[in-house]
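This part of the workshop introduces the protein records we will be handling. To make this concrete, we reproduce a full record directly below:
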Amino acid sequence: MRASERCWFACVRGCPGRYSIFDVIYHCPVCGGLLEVQHDLDALRERSAAEWKGLFEDRTHTNEWPYGSGVWGKKEWVCPEVDDELVVSMYEGHTNLYWAQRFGAELGLEDLWVKLCGNSHTGSFKDLGMTVLVSVVRQMIAKGSSVRAIACASTGDTSASLAAYCAAAGIPSIVFLPRNRVSTAQLIQPIANGALVLSLDTDFDGCMAIVKDVTKDQSIYLANSMNSLRVEGQKTVGIEIVQQFDWDPPDWIIIPVGNLGNISALGKGLLQMRDLGLIDRLPKLVAAQAERANPFYLSYQTGFKELVPVKARRTAASAIQIGNPVSYEKAVKVLQQFDGVVVQATESELAEAAARADLTGMYACPHTGVALAALIKLVESGVIKGTDRTIVISTANGLKFTQFKVDYHAGTLADAECLRRNPPLELPADASAVKAAIAERFGDS
């Protein structure tokens, strides 16, 4: 590693050794554990916390390349090694915080917010990490690397993001998808962006095993979250949340989890803020899992004694239908530092939570439904108090999961009661029939 490097790979377990972020390496050569990106914090401390806040605020309002991006506006904290002209960005980040006032009032919460990460180029939070990974690979190729394509296993959102960013960079992409287990909207995204789409007769964990084998050929670069370059972009969601509240951290942040890279990233960004003096306290984190794909929840019940992989069963929250999460170690390390909890949601609970939120103006994807169900449970049990500022991270745009909504309101969603279904009324083109239907719903005027 060059002495001048400001970030590098190192073993998450603390083994000695530093490795360039431009090396094709995913595991510690000493112990086989995952790697993480580490930064030269002493160099970053040359700016005061006030100076960092001022710089980040200024960049939030600029179109100067690449700093207008919510990720690259924090470039020094994310990936300072990438040349500006090689950054691949679609001005990701800067997603809005929605004050869920009506939904919060129903739950007895005064200060409930939803971070709408699905308001992004490909419709999910995955864009935050993919801009970093594809930019690094673009620089590797520019410097003579033999990498010829980037590959990932996916439950839909990662593949969409990878394909879009690779298309923008002119780098071939390969995506491994579990057949008939991703939504039509998610499937068509990488197809439209020119990826080699491999639809395999297996689940996500099976796709993951194959992509790990394929990427042993170092000319095909692995883009799954075991590659911690993605974490560096995804960690900006926590930084952005705090910035949006004038640098005052919330009390709780709830996020749906599957492969566990997202909660690892969320925690890492918040810890970096604390270590550099921008905040003096940490929120509590909640990892929300679908009951049918709940290895992290089961491990939490034993005090994280060990990870016992499960055979993930089919769930409406298909993007987190993962039974053997690769970022388990990182997630445990983070959750323990945040006094965090893990909550699971049944199919009925996640569907009803999403429908209940929709009736207050949201359009929640099933994974956000898992997080909302966890929120409801924590409020009802008194863990989250009425005055706690609480953030639910919505990881994807609900429009990607139209069939989930259609099935719910048709009353055909598997294992859900569909208590709030609202199917269209089919009526003759007759004013009296229409007036009768309105009167039945709203009463006579």
Q: What stands out?
A: The two ends are 76 Å apart (CA to CA). The chain is about 40% helix and 15% strand. The mean pLDDT is 96.
